[in-house]
Design a protein that fits this description.
Distance between the termini: 21 Å
Helix content: over 70%
Low-confidence stretches: none
Number of domains: 1
Largest sheet: none
Strand content: under 5%
Number of strands: 0
Radius of gyration: 16 Å
Number of helices: 2
Mean pLDDT: 81
Length: 63
């Protein structure tokens, strides 16, 4: 579980490095920030789903 979360963090930062433009174009930077925020939200949903799956597995292991 921890490995997956570490993997997601690494993927996010690599994506940030490659997606952040080197230009001073504010529109492009705003679009990039929006894309990164969407990525963060998607990863947070994935983390939440993994947490629910872990709880489900813990519950079935106790049964």
């Amino acid at each position: 579980m921890r490995d997956k979360m570490n993997y997601l963090v690494v993927v996010f930062f690599l994506a940030a490095v490659f997606l952040l433009p080197g230009t001073a174009n504010a529109d492009t930077q705003d679009e990039t920030i929006q894309k990164l925020m969407e990525m963060v939200e998607a990863q947070q949903r994935q983390i939440d789903m993994l947490k629910k799956e872990v709880e489900s597995l813990k519950g079935s292991a106790k049964a």
